[in-house]
């Protein structure tokens, strides 16, 4: 019996030894590229990202059956990166583009009026004929609005394919066609005065519910939005009935207390809406928001609310609008920031150091001076200077939580019309 036990132990030892050799061989086969390198930050972020998908109440709605959907969500998490809609959050190769309903408008793009959809998709595949600059994610404003009195009242949609049944199929077809080209689509919307009153704040909450309801209207995930992308920017409200209020009744280290609380409430509400949708359908979509490059420095309440485990956002868009001219210290402004006053703030390095609990995507501006000041935009410098800056970002800052670049924006007086 003793000899048999020894033989059995020896056999187990041989099996374990073989298993170790197999595991080592597999590891060697998959560790050939930088994206597969494990880091302490990757582990920490993975846990933080998972927690952001849980409802703010930590419980799904009572009427949602979760067993089957949780299994589907688990399958998505274990799927290859190409089929996992959340995989881009741990990579650094996103090349995104804001597509506002301007020129052309959302209706023309969705209905392909005058070939507007064809032109957009051609441009995404090869901006200015260069396929190496292909776009793989867009933030798309699918509703069409008038911007008249946008600082005075919440905009009403003149074209609404989210809720108008007669327009929904065209939007689904557009989404499916765009995704077949390898381009993810987040719904884009935003208005600065959403946070100015309780009544105004209901608009973005309902928007998130409308997007989720639209997604649930089809079983084909290719016909659904991949996320919700909000652009609120209350600091731009300098006229109209709410003009200047952002700078009144300020929180310590921040701005208007009531506006800040509504902003938080909007993001929490949209997070809860998305989490309930995921629990019901098993389909995961992201919630993202844009902030100015100096928010981590000047707005501590918003910074502390967002930069934490279990926060409402899946990733943050930093509007890092510098044309990379040297700042007063002689450093390239896109990476080291610049100053309008006493302090040099913003830039890639400061934001990566500050936003250490969230994936970060960095924006570049391409609009003329009617949209952005000369030092903020590459409109004057052209594509060559912008691409050189983007290439440095993507090659030198591609570790940790930097997930890519987003270009503002699609239009004849922006990226489409940007000179060489």
From TrEMBL:
Biased composition (Polar residues): 48-58
PROSITE patterns, A to Z: PROKAR_LIPOPROTEIN
Biased composition regions of type Acidic residues, renumbered to the chain: 37-47, 60-70
Superkingdom, natural source: Bacteria
Disordered: annotated span: 29-86
Keywords: Signal
Residues making up the signal peptide according to the UniProt record: 1-24
Name of protein: GH26 domain-containing protein
Lineage: Bacteria, Deltaproteobacteria, Bradymonadales, Bradymonadaceae, Persicimonas
């Amino acid at each position: 019996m003793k000899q048999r036990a020894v033989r059995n132990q020896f056999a187990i030892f041989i099996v374990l030894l073989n298993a170790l050799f197999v595991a080592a061989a597999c590891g060697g086969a998959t560790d050939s590229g930088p994206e597969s390198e494990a880091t302490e930050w990757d582990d920490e972020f993975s846990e933080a990202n998972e927690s952001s998908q849980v409802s703010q109440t930590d419980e799904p709605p009572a009427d949602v059956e979760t067993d089957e959907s949780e299994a589907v969500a688990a399958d998505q998490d274990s799927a290859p990166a190409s089929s996992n809609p959340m995989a881009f959050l741990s990579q650094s190769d996103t090349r995104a583009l804001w597509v506002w309903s301007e020129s052309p408008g959302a209706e023309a793009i969705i209905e392909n009026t005058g070939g507007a959809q064809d032109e957009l998709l051609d441009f995404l595949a090869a901006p200015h004929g260069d396929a190496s600059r292909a776009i793989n994610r867009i933030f798309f404003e699918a509703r069409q609005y008038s911007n008249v009195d946008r600082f005075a009242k919440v905009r009403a949609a003149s074209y609404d394919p989210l809720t108008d049944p007669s327009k929904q199929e065209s939007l689904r077809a557009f989404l499916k066609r765009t995704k077949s080209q390898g381009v993810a689509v987040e719904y884009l919307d935003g208005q600065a005065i959403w946070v100015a009153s309780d009544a105004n704040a209901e608009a973005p909450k309902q928007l998130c519910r409308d997007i989720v309801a639209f997604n649930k209207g089809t079983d084909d995930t290719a016909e659904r939005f991949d996320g919700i992308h909000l652009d609120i920017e209350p600091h731009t409200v300098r006229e109209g009935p709410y003009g200047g209020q952002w700078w009144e009744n300020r929180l310590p280290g921040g701005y208007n207390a009531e506006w800040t609380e509504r902003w938080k409430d909007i993001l929490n509400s949209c997070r809860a809406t998305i989490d309930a949708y995921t629990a019901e359908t098993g389909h995961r979509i992201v919630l993202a928001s844009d902030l100015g490059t100096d928010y981590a420095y000047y707005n501590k309440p918003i910074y502390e609310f967002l930069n934490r485990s279990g926060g409402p956002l899946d990733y943050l868009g930093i509007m890092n609008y510098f044309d990379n001219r040297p700042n007063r210290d002689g450093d390239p402004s896109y990476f080291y920031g610049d100053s309008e006053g006493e302090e040099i703030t913003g830039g890639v390095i400061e934001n990566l150091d500050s936003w250490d609990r969230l994936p970060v995507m960095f924006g570049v501006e391409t609009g003329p001076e009617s949209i952005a000041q000369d030092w903020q935009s590459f409109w004057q410098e052209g594509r060559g200077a912008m691409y050189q800056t983007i290439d440095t970002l993507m090659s030198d800052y591609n570790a940790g939580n930097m997930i890519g670049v987003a270009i503002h924006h699609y239009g004849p007086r922006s990226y489409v019309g940007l000179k060489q």
